[in-house]
Amino acid sequence: MPLQKPFIVLMTGDIDINHSLLKHRRQNIIATSQYDAILMHIETTRFDLILLDLPVDSPTASLHDRSRHCPDPRQSELIARIKKPLGVNGKTPVIAIINPAQNSRIDQQFDDRLTGPLTEQRLNEIIDLWQTRASALDYIQIILSKTKNNQRLTLTLFEKLFEELPLQTVIIKEALENKQYDLAREVTHKLNGSVSFCGLTDIQQPANALESDLLNNNYASTHQHFLMLQQCILNFTRHQKFILTNLGTC
Fold first, then answer.
1. Which of 131, 148, 175, 243 qualifies as a cystine partner to 183, CB 3.0-4.6 A?
2. For residue 216, is it within any domain?
3. Structural contact between residues 209 and 226, judged by C-beta atoms closer than 8 angstroms
């Protein structure tokens, strides 16, 4: 399952944000505009997202480097070093931040491009978007590993999960409210079996706790564990559109 873990971002160049204040608010951001520091970070730290705002400060920069008719040589070197197949950031998404006053070409290896300058609000939106996308891709990889990379079967499993989990959540909620504990236990057991089979341990953990409460007549704890289960399922189903679209185009 996509465990809750820091989403680490490398932010480079002259993005128009107070870096020290931003790092205080979001401890997961490393910000630098120094070329040598960027090279050191991409070689030693596994990032989840890299925002590359060029040009960066480079002792070897020249007027020719700033030509608008071809990609900046520093840009090409950085993206090539980041995307090395065996490098620590070989699969890390890299976004180019483009200065609208410039008309420079962007290396094709960038995963996306945005027009700067970025406000703090816009930066937070970008990070949240890519973090959500990373979580969805983690879910896809989990079930692909269960199906031995059978994409059609993986798509079928996701479709069933997205259909059944919300319905089961409603049934469990109503059963608990009406003190129909046998029904709540039966549906919780079925839900728990489905997510356990698919390897979705983030949902499995509260499902296990709720099922244990119901088996042991520990009804005082059922409300708390049901709310945890409900939230985990909501976290999962919010990726429905992205996951089904991604698998449907494979």
1. 175
2. yes
3. no
> Would residue 2 count as lying in a domain?
no
CB 21 within 8 A of CB 162: no
Quick: pLDDT tens for 179-214.
Answer: 999 999 999 999 999 999 999 999 999 999 999 999
What element of type H or E holds 198? Answer: helix 181-198
Range of the domain at 203: 149-248
d(C-alpha 143, C-alpha 13), whole Å: 38
CB neighbour list of residue 134: distance below 8 Å, 6 or more residues apart: 2, 7, 48
Give the H/E segment covering residue 142. helix 120-146
107 located within any domain: yes
Low-confidence ranges of the chain (pLDDT < 70): 1-6, 13-27, 54-74, 101-107, 249-250
- Antiparallel, parallel or unpaired: β 49-53 and 112-115: unpaired
The verdict on 172 and 61 lying in the same domain is no
Q: Are residues 200 and 84 in the same domain?
A: no
On whether both 103 and 18 belong to a single domain, the answer is: yes
25: domain CATH number is 3.40.50.2300
Helix (H) / strand (E) element for 51: namely strand 49-53
Model pLDDT for residues 132-170, shown as the tens digit of each residue = 898 999 999 999 999 999 999 999 999 999 999 999 999
